[in-house]
Design brief:
Length: about 150
Amino acid sequence: MSLNEEVELLRNIPLFAKLEPSKLKLLAFTAERITYEPDQVLFHQGDVGDAAYIIVDGAAKVLVDTPDGELEVAALGRNDFVGEIAILCDVPRTATVRASAKTVTLRITKDLFFRLVAEFPEMSVEIMRELASRLEQTTQQLREALAKSS
């Protein structure tokens, strides 16, 4: 994938959609491209959050450790952004992410991510929207799980 194709990919992610093309180009250039084979782990639950990842191509599963083993809580695909909670909140990773197919990612370091947020406050609004959406989905899943167990 060329630099211009990576810029177009980033433009399709709501978090980065409003950034100027020159900043998207800088982000695409400075982000590390990593390819994972099926069943390879991007990061483990409990790891220190040092980067976020954009799925460029492929698919991955979000897994949470439970007393009964791993539980798949989400599936990720092209254009999905994952791992930002650990870098935003300075907490250990809340889940494990494992490739379910050959998966190409862009790895955005914590420092680069915060530089972008500082330079482009509108990114903060998109981050809040995304986190609020995820919280709503999690709350809905919890309600459904509680209703089934009653």
